[in-house]
Amino acid sequence: QGNMAFTGKYEFEGDENYEDFVKKIGLPSDKVEMGRNCKIITEVLQNGNDFTWTQHFPGGRTTTNTFTIGKEADMETMGGRKFKATVKMEDGKIVADFPNYHHTAEICGGKLVEISIASGVVYKRTSKKIA
């Protein structure tokens, strides 16, 4: 494909249903506090079907997931849990099933829009492109 649609650096802009979502997935309260209105910088490198997805948290903590569309990969959750997942591409969206939530990411109007669903709670995070 060579579609570089996701490549870029994105800064957290806003989210919806954060509290309800993190309760549903059982995130520890210190992590909940850390992630609230957190200016996460998401850096995406896309090379065809290969992705490196890095999240930079204030205070220097970083989470990186490297995956290839359609192949099983070792991943890490928001809470730092390791698991295996096969990431898919559906209608231009990246789709992954995390241990306790379903996650999609897409570029919409130049913004990175990520949606996670856990037990009927829809958490939406929007980040604006900064590089």
The overall pLDDT average reads 90
Strand count: 11
Q: Determine the number of helices (DSSP H or I, runs of at least 4 residues).
A: 2
CATH topology: Lipocalin
General shape = globular
Distance between the termini: 22 Å
CATH 2nd-level architecture: Beta Barrel
SSE string, helix = H, strand = E? EHHEEEEEEEEEE
Low-confidence blocks of residues: none
Query: What's the CATH H-level superfamily name?
Result: Calycin beta-barrel core domain
CATH class: Mainly Beta
Main location: cytoplasm
Keywords: Cytoplasm, Lipid-binding, Transport
Family: Belongs to the calycin superfamily. Fatty-acid binding protein (FABP) family.
Domain Cytosolic fatty-acid binding proteins: 8-25
Walk me through this protein's architecture.
The chain has two helices and eleven strands; from the N terminus they run βααββββββββββ. It has 131 residues and is mainly beta. The protein has one domain (8-129): Lipocalin (Beta Barrel), CATH 2.40.128.20. A nine-stranded antiparallel β-sheet has the order 4-3-2-1-11-10-9-8-7. The longest helix has 7 residues, at 18-24. The chain starts with 7 loop residues before the first strand and ends with a strand. The mean pLDDT is 90.
